Amino acid sequence: MEIAMKITASIMLATALALSSAPAGATVLDLSTMTCKQFVEGGDDTIKMVLVWMDGWYKGDSDEAIIDTDVFTENARKFGTYCGKNPTISIVNAAEAVLGK
């Protein structure tokens, strides 16, 4: 349950990412190799950045530039739950499994 609580807390903060400034220390995240375990253990900033990236990636170029916080939060919850149950899968594969079109 600790992982679920951490993910839930991070999801609540994720929508604030669009309104906040970038973290003070620059970080390079290779999302193509990041595992669900690394995502969950990555800390709030990493979790928020990945969730916002994922939201934009799956909207694509043709969708409107709108963040529906209810949809965002629900998708983030689904993704976090999936990653919590599948720690060795890559986040790209997890996102495809959860949000793939």
Descriptive overview:
This protein is an all-alpha fold and 101 residues long. It has a single domain, classed as 10k-s Protein, Hypothetical Protein A, Chain A (Orthogonal Bundle), CATH 1.10.890. It contains 5 helices and no strands. About 5% of the residues have low confidence.
Structural class: mainly alpha
* Computed CA radius of gyration, to the nearest angstrom: 13 Å
What string gives the helices and strands in order?
A: HHHHH
Number of E strands: 0
CATH topology: 10k-s Protein, Hypothetical Protein A, Chain A
Largest sheet: none
Helical run tally: 5
Which band does the percent of strand residues land in? under 5%
Distance between the termini: 29 Å
- CATH top level is Mainly Alpha
Average pLDDT reading: 79
CATH architecture grouping: Orthogonal Bundle
Give the low-pLDDT segments: 15-19
Shape descriptor: globular
